[in-house]
Amino acid sequence: MASMSSAYHPSALVVRFAERGSELTEIRRELIESIEPRPTPQPVSGTWLEVAITYRPVEAGSVGTKTVIIGLRLTVQPINLLNALVVWKDSANENPSELLDRVELVLRGRSMAGV
Q1: For 85-105, what is each residue's pLDDT tens digit?
Q2: Radius of gyration of the chain (CA)
Q3: Which among 29, 62, 63, 102 would be 20 to 30 A from 2, CA to CA?
Q4: How far apart, in Å, are the Cα atoms of 37 and each of 32, 34, 50, 70?
């Protein structure tokens, strides 16, 4: 893993929604309401697991929550993505380098023992 500045804090996810021309959206960890598995029907192969992240947007005038669905077209197993996001969300006070190392292990499907 590349070295990081001690000022770096992995406290937000940055996503781009599927709509053409959409801007990057930052989802801060403290604004996340839930991270949950979401089975999605597939026309040929049954269902596929995706991850639903529900959060409170910071945009002016936003009321309520928004949900982003992540999963299709990724190179990690959806269950590993779900587990890694939960580790990230629940580890707000951890050393950033150690946290990112733990998240990487979970994304790679390594044991979550001691996580």
Answers
A1: 999 998 877 788 888 899 999
A2: 15
A3: 29
A4: 15, 10, 6, 10
